[in-house]
């Protein structure tokens, strides 16, 4: 693919280490990949400039933030709705964490975080009343597994 950055095994290892803990120091990463801290910094700077690393984030305890309930909502739209317009249905709804447009049925999946079931119903009703959503199906999350959470130090 044209314009795709070339990454070697060390770049991949640096990315993996930063995915595990984005607050690692360059010295810590350097010790693990057998480079100097300045060499790791240069590589990270290059990965940022090339758009491989697009940002850094934190993991949150959503229950402590007052939104312990997580759900996915399948969203269906009229066939005339442009794909690029689908995600705007969630504009102004802070409970909707993300909207993923999909090929096939459904047209999109919304990730929602709310206080409780009553709050979930309120958000679903708001999405339905947008006038653009023709159908929904809600799936409450019981638990989450990711490779990062499965790793034991």
Main sheet? 4 strands, antiparallel
Annotated CATH architecture of the largest domain? 2-Layer Sandwich
Q: Count structural domains.
A: 2
Mean pLDDT: 92
Q: What is the number of helices?
A: 6
Look up the CATH topology of the largest domain: Alpha-Beta Plaits
Q: CATH superfamily membership of the largest domain, which one?
A: Lrp/AsnC effector binding domain/regulation of amino acid metabolism (RAM) domain
What is the class of the largest domain in the CATH system? Alpha Beta
- Which stretches are poorly predicted, pLDDT < 50 over at least 5 residues? none
Distance from N terminus to C terminus (CA atoms, Å) equals 36 Å
How do the strands line up in the largest sheet?
A: 2-3-1-4
Q: What is the CA-based Rg, rounded?
A: 20 Å
Beta-strand segment tally? 4
Helix content: 25-40%
- What is the percentage of strand-forming residues? 15-25%
Coarse structural class: alpha+beta
The secondary-structure element order is HHHEHEEHEH
Gross morphology is elongated
């Amino acid at each position: 693919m044209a314009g795709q950055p070339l990454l070697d095994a060390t770049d991949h290892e640096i990315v993996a280490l930063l995915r595990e803990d984005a607050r690692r120091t360059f010295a810590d990463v350097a010790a693990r990949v057998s480079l100097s801290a300045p060499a790791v910094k240069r590589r990270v700077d290059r990965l940022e400039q090339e758009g491989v690393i697009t940002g850094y984030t934190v993991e949150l305890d959503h229950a402590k933030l007052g939104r312990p309930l997580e759900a996915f909502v399948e969203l269906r739209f009229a066939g005339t709705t442009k794909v690029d317009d689908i995600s705007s249905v969630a504009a102004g709804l802070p409970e909707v964490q993300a909207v993923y447009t999909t090929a096939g049925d459904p047209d999109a999946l919304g990730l929602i975080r709310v206080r409780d079931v009553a709050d979930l119903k309120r958000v679903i009703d708001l999405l339905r009343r947008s006038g653009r959503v023709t159908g929904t199906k809600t799936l409450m999350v019981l638990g989450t597994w990711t490779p990062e959470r499965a790793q034991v130090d």
